[in-house]
Amino acid sequence: MDIQTVTLERQGAVLVATVDNPPVNALSHSVRAGLVDAVEALESDPQAKALVIVCAGRTFIAGADIREFNKPLKEPRLGVLIERLDRCEKPVIAAMHGTALGGGLEIALACSYRVALESARFGLPEVKLGLLPGSGGIVRLPRLIGVEEALAMISQGNQVDAEHALETGLLDEVMADDLRAGALAFAERIVAEGGAIRRTSDLPVPTIEPGFLDAKRAEFAKKFKGLDAPQIAVDLVEMMSTTPFQEAAAREYATCKELIASPQSQALRHLFAAERAALKIDGVPAEVEPREIRTVAVAGPGVMGRGIAICFLNAGYPVVLLGKDEENLSKGVGGIRKILESGVKRGRMTQEAADEQMSHLTPTLDYADLGAVDLVVEAVTEDLATKKDVFARLDAALPDRAIIATNTSFLDIEALASSVTRPENVAGMHFFNPANVMKLLENVRAGRTAPDVLATITSVGKKIGKVPVMVGRSEGFVANRMLSKRSREAQFLLEDGATPQQIDKVLSGFGFPIGPFALADLAGMDVMAAARKARLAGMTPREQACDIVDKLAAAGRLGQKTGAGYYLYGDDRKPQPDPAVDELLAAHRAERGLPQREITDEEILERCLYAMVNEAAKIIDEGAAARPGDIDVIWTNGFGWPTHLGGPMFWANRIGLPNVKAALEKYSALVGEEYFRPANLIESLVAEGRGFYD
Ligand code: 3H9
Q1: Which of 40, 68, 126, 665 is labelled catalytic?
Q2: In the chain, what percentage of residues exceed pLDDT 70?
Q3: How many CA atoms, within 13 angstroms, populate the side-chain half-sphere of residue 568?
Q4: Residue 16 carries which DSSP code?
Q5: Catalytic residue among 43, 83, 106, 326
Q6: Span 530-547, pLDDT tens digits
Q7: 276 lines ligand 1 (CB under 6 A)
Q8: Distance from C-alpha of 544 to C-alpha of 548, rounded to nearest angstrom
Q9: Which of 30, 65, 66 to mutate to test the pocket of ligand 1 (most atoms within 8 A of CB)?
């Protein structure tokens, strides 16, 4: 039986329905049923002249209950409630705080009046779940605020604030505090003035400028490559403008129902849940309190350090920036100022905000200035001896409670932890370049990291707007370890006869924002060659012999910066295939005695992606990632795995693990490399007839 989530009380002539369904007042069955009862109570009570819908807790209704999407729907469905609100003969007032989202906003749209706290925000985020509004968002919002504003909210999931909502007519009144009292007073006034009903459904269809919708279709095709829902949003808005209200509302609901069952929505809903599950750290009970972080330091003002400092400054933390000498420090400070200024130029922040952030930055060369720091992120040169030296100095200077996090990408954190007196306060916080832009934060648990340190780096990661995922020790952690397997396979495919442009086309066609060779040209062949040299000793004989990167670097083809790498670059910086690279590859194959053959696009895709999936299964087997969903979150936020395919593990699971295993065995025989042998996890899941998520 449902617990009661809606309570009703009458204050004079006004009924107040309070929704209390933690954590976000989602529209579970009990809430829908409770609100239908509230409308019935309003209609049947002659003393009651108006109804106010308000929520307890941190937010107004955050939308349909996503967890109910995978179950048979229990009546009353949301559409029934919305219809009751729309037809109600007495005024209903939605009183909103926090975020009024999705079905929550649709409820408000079906009310006669909408009031909110000035801190409230409003949105139709369904598109982010591969869905579209299904209970009036499409047919009502454009009528209320116009097509342009409405389409921006529907197709991109944009939130608007209360000030903007008041301007556009979404809200009738904004209040500074005491929403409940303010909404009651508003309702009493409406009643005193005669209790007028205002139905959004009665508003005229808004005009749409000729060509507007087609321009949006073209814009969204580029901006939301591969995603269906934004395009369907445009179709629905067009349909709404030419179809009678009731029929349009029915078509809106039918489309939403179809989208709920679509593979894209299933993938995006999986990612929504996976991102939240990733915040629950294995072995750290929910009651473990994170430490308080008031001041942060970043040691090493290089490219990564600057980006990391900006993440903290943006989130309002004072940052101490530690450099090794005057030149290094002033370059770092200048770099930070430049990035903030470019944010101002692009309209992302005001000059005042940039100035304020700069005023929170304290550059120093003196470790003694770290005496009040709670967390330091070390981002000095990627060299164990250098890092150990910095760790020892940090250890001496920092207060005992302070956390030392390293941004290393490859080094053994345990070796760093062992060099200080507080190994329990040492962890990894691995940012991705550019650190102030990329969402992924790989937090790394070292052998002795204390549970509250793990909880702290997770909560701080969220506060600075990142998507934190906890990983364990493993060379390259998770993201780069998997990337290196895809890169290796791409190199081997070149040896077998594919071209850089063929491989890039297949992978960007799959949905990655950029192919591996165009990406390597961006990173620079000198950087790639240095990384290869550092790892040469641990490589297999074929990897050691596959030195295409070294040959390109030796030929001065360093990538975009020299106008040539795997591709040629003109002034427009667009990669053009280069016959000289074909010759270099042909010579390499001849030197290695490798026969060249036709490589199909299917083979490219499967070898590149299955090599990653197999590695990920090994990572899970080793315990370096807690769940397959964590890998999906890492790859969609770190390296642009297309979100509508749910991440590598979700994608592989959908293909079916027996099929994945068979393909791995096929490539194991064809390529002759040990790494294609199916991981133990895949073998055992297939044997048990289970998938990654069962
Ligand atoms: C819709 O409305 C369709 C209709 O148009 C038509 C239908 C026919 N349901 O994010 P948080 C859980 S589609 C169930 O960490 P925050 C979440 O899983 C819906 N559960 O908090 C987490 O659980 P746990 C349109 C939900 O403060 C907990 O709440 N609405 C839902 O950082 C806390 O979440 C959306 O897409 C839900 N709808 O952010 C809104 N939402 O603790 C999606 C959250 O077990 N939600 N949970 O891990 C959000 O954007 C954010 O959660 C919100 C709060 C901004 C509300």
Answers
A1: 126
A2: 100
A3: 8
A4: E
A5: 106
A6: 989 988 998 989 999 999
A7: yes
A8: 10
A9: 66
